[in-house]
Amino acid sequence: QEKSCHLSAALLGEDSEISQDQLYELLKYAALGKCHNAAQPSWCRIYHQSHLAGVVVVVLQEMSQLHFYRFYLQFKHLRRVFQHRFTLAPSANFPVSLYGEGTNLKPQNTPQGLTSTSSECISKSSDLQCDPIIQRYGGKKQGLTSYTLTLEEQKENDYPIEGSPGCKGYISTECDQQRTDSSPLFGLDCEMCLTAKGNEVTRVSLVDARGQCLLNELVKPQSPVLNYRTRFSGITRKMLLPVKTRLSDIQTRLKKMLPHDAVLVGHSLNSDLQALEMIHPSVIDTSLLFARNEGRRFKLKFLAKAVLGKEIQCEQKLGHDPTEDARAALELAQFFIEQGPTKVAELNLEMLLTAEKLAEVSQNKAALQPQGCGFQEQLNEPPPLSKPCFLDCLQVTGQKPLLLGRQELDPSGLCQSNLSTSNKQILQRALEDVPLSKFSIIQFSLGPEYLASHLHAGLYEKVRSKLTDMLTIYAGPFEENFCMKSVKKEFGRCGPIQSLTVVTETFQPYVCIQYEVLEAAQLAVESLNGAEVAGSCIKVQRPVTAAMLDCNVLIKELELDVENEGVIYVAGLKKSLTETDLQEEFSQFKDLETLFLPKDLQSGKHRNCCFLKFQKTQSAVDALEAINGWTMKGSELRSRNALAPGHLWRWIWQMNHNNGKQGKHVFYEKMEQLSDCEQDLRKKVKKLDHQIKKLYRSLQNNTLCIVLFPGVNSTHGSQSGLGLMGIKDDEGRSAC
């Protein structure tokens, strides 16, 4: 039976803003896969990439996130089909940023982790037999149990063992050795400081098989610290001062978190387990997995770059990030298991390490030269090789990608490029040609008359104005001398308040409250309308304007948005609660996948609300029922279904805080310019949505489809882009 591909991406909050490089990373892996040394993207995961039928990128020229949410109701197909959505850094010319201006057709010496042809990997199969990885594991792919350390190997490498003299008082995770090739992997890494007792753990990170952080906690050592080793650990005295968590707390938490057949992955994991004073029977040590001769070991930083194409432990950062290190070790083990020893041996890591050291020596020599020396040599040197563009990378598959659009998209001539004069023509060509191509870029446009900068400015003002109205509620009437503190406290239980003012134009006082999140305003309308607050029975309503007449329709559609499936909003949290506290409190709920705790983007402080994403919709429904009215640490919680997808948090916050920065005359001028063509624009957007729907329905199952609003980056201003993505399944929806 053919395996179906699926996509995993926990895109909530700040993590949902994706750069052009990260998008490039996804497209490269989708098109090339691990057989061409492309690494899994760092921000999402494609399962069974080799079964992808193709990749289709739809680019909506010069459109931004602003267009999607201004015409949200018109984009009916897009919002109901694509499971994953992300904010995209704007680009002045998106197609060029995707595959580069001009392309070098000559073979390039590309670094591992980007791309290389099989002839650039190590040479002859006879040489592979001498590789320590092949000698240790053989050449065939095996399951993960073949790579876990035996009891003897653990003893040889100073792992804590049950009953060993040096492990008295150590805590066992109580996991058994009944592991299978389907057992779950967990990445673990600790940072240590030198104390009077020796090396004591001061920070612990644990990530699951998808790379999601389950634990990232500072730990107070038992003995006085002699050396914080800040350069490596990143720990300072100031960081540990308020910490109350002790080693015993971490031990208890890890025991609860790890299932009975858990396999821990780490780099020199023995040091971490010794510092944690814990015993665990099933481990994969990446410092031993990527075997070298004579007992030497590769550093994690080198392996991450050479195998995964990722930079970790950067010198610009203060100390190592244990979550980053745990995730890197986990991905290295997954790469080894999925690719097998032969593919890993073909990377020729020893030769790469030698080349890297030679490069470092060369750089150091150059740095030691007196100022001005070697200038003439630099003039005679050839220019450095540019980073290979996307089309260069696709050449290794022997394919020519398909580009369709109204303008000249590919200056290099590496693609099958067809120019059309209308979206209708582009769609017709796409329906014919896309099934014949493994990688296609289809560019649609609303037309030049709708791309003027003043129209973008007008759209921004309309979206910001409507958003402000949706975040605002009016409550009252109150008695003359009502207690404002009571009102603020009651309405604050619905979520973070941006502003609260008394309306004086009415006979009796009313209060105008503007929230920071849509869910808080809706929760206030639903739960406090008709309630008694500050001694008065009040009415709660949104402002009544022409733009707000379809507010209830919009709220209903936002609730049904495919990206909000399984996501609930929880308010009334005490600000003293940390993310770890909340993870612990909510861990009782079944199928909880992600917790997002919003922060004020200026102060960095947590708000009094959070979002919970569940793997199954029914689990979210059950949690919603249980949480409403639930008391946590003396505070009553309120909850409802999420309205604004996670990637909107930062955007809404910025719009809120940019309110009123432009003069009224500018605002009305832009409104007039836009109103003349907006009705026509709605029709065009609706038609465009239908054309994308038609194209999407024609795609084969297991096709990765990404729709991009590239954003606007010009002298007139910048607007973030938006990406929607999914892998088409049998039901015509995108598989998550």
TrEMBL record:
**CDD domains in the record:** REX1_like (cd06145), RRM1_NEFsp (cd12273)
Q: Which molecular-function annotation in GO is an example for this chain?
A: exonuclease activity
| UniProt keyword list | Coiled coil, Exonuclease, Hydrolase, Nuclease, RNA-binding
Q: Which residues form a coiled coil?
A: 671-698
Mind telling me which InterPro entries this protein's record contains?
Nucleotide-bd_a/b_plait_sf (IPR012677), RBD_domain_sf (IPR035979), REX1-like_exo (IPR034922), REXO1/3/4-like (IPR047021), Ribonucl_H (IPR013520), RNaseH-like_sf (IPR012337), RNaseH_sf (IPR036397), RRM_dom (IPR000504)
Against Pfam families, the record matches this protein to:
RRM_1
Q: State the source organism's domain of life.
A: Eukaryota
Q: Which PROSITE patterns match?
A: RRM
Domain RRM per the UniProt entry, residue ranges: 471-545, 566-644
> Among the entry's GO cellular component annotations, what is one?
nucleus
* Full protein name: REXO5 exonuclease
